[in-house]
């Protein structure tokens, strides 16, 4: 289970209280859908919460994620005693395929989500599909870290958030030649560099508790 931590008392700003109120409602909705869910106030607490998974004997991997970078995951996992399956160091396609075959059965797969609705739907759009494939099937546990900026009131707004707020900056980050990388606006393109190949809506965890969602009370990722 995602560990709960005692947080020192502090006076929350209205925005922090707002995030906490939404998270409390969301956690109830997420649990009804078979997800495990918890809330922490900031990125430091998020890193502490996932530390127990990065221990000896566990095989760990992750999808590409600015959120994971921002909470310090990339550094922590390399310094930890777990076995980290790092696809980014593979030099050939054969090496990448070998890593992906191990990721498919790893103990813990870490990722963020492009959007999450208040009633508990996860919305993700992926380029190659490796991230959403691991979310759907394979790894024994999927740990999703999501800043409260990813929260949307409904499915329609979640989809719009991905296309208008998440995809354009990611194409810039990945140096893709797409219309949105230039204009900042989705053109619903079919460019060879398009990162919007697979759209996945996850409405429940078929294996109760396999997908664990950690909501973080600050803005993280795109």
Task: Give an overview in words.
The protein has 222 residues and is α/β, with parallel strands linked by helices. The chain has a six-stranded parallel β-sheet with strand order 1-10-7-4-2-3, sandwiched between helices. The chain is globular, with a radius of gyration of 17 Å. The two termini are 27 Å apart.
List keywords for this structure.
alpha/beta; 222 residues; 8 helices; six-stranded parallel beta sheet; single chain; four-stranded mixed beta sheet
Which SSEs are present, and which pair or pack?
Layout: H1 14-32, E1 36-40, H2 43-50, E2 59-62, H3 66-71, H4 73-79, E3 83-84, H5 93-103, E4 108-111, E5 115-117, E6 122-126, H6 130-136, E7 141-147, E8 151-152, H7 155-173, H8 179-183, E9 198-202, E10 211-216
Parallel strand pairs: 1-10, 2-3, 2-4, 4-7, 5-8, 7-10
Antiparallel strand pairs: 5-6, 6-9
Summarize this, please?
The chain has eight helices and ten strands. The chain is an alpha/beta fold.
Main sheet characteristics: 6 strands, parallel
The total strand number stands at 10
Uncertain runs:
none
- The helix-and-strand class reads alpha/beta
Quick check: average pLDDT? Answer: 93
């Amino acid at each position: 289970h995602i560990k709960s931590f005692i947080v020192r008392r502090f006076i929350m700003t209205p925005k922090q209280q707002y995030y906490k109120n939404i998270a409390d409602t969301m956690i109830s909705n997420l649990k009804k859908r078979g997800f495990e869910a918890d809330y922490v106030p900031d990125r430091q607490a998020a890193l502490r919460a996932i530390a127990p998974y990065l221990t000896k004997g566990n095989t760990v991997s992750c999808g590409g994620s600015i959120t994971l970078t921002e909470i310090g995951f990339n550094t922590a996992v390399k310094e930890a005693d777990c076995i980290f399956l790092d696809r980014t160091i593979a030099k050939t396609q054969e090496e990448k395929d070998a890593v992906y075959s191990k990721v498919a059965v790893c103990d813990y797969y870490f990722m963020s989500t492009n959007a999450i609705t208040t009633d508990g739907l996860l919305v993700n759009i992926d380029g190659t599909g490796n991230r959403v494939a691991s979310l759907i099937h394979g790894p024994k546990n999927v740990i999703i870290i999501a800043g409260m900026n990813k929260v949307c009131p409904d499915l329609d707004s979640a989809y719009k958030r991905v296309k208008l707020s998440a995809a354009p900056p990611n194409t810039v980050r990945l140096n893709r030649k797409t219309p949105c990388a230039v204009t900042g606006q989705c053109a619903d393109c079919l460019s060879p560099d398009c990162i919007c190949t697979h759209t996945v809506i996850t409405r429940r965890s078929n294996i109760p508790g396999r997908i664990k969602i950690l909501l973080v009370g600050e803005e993280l990722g795109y």
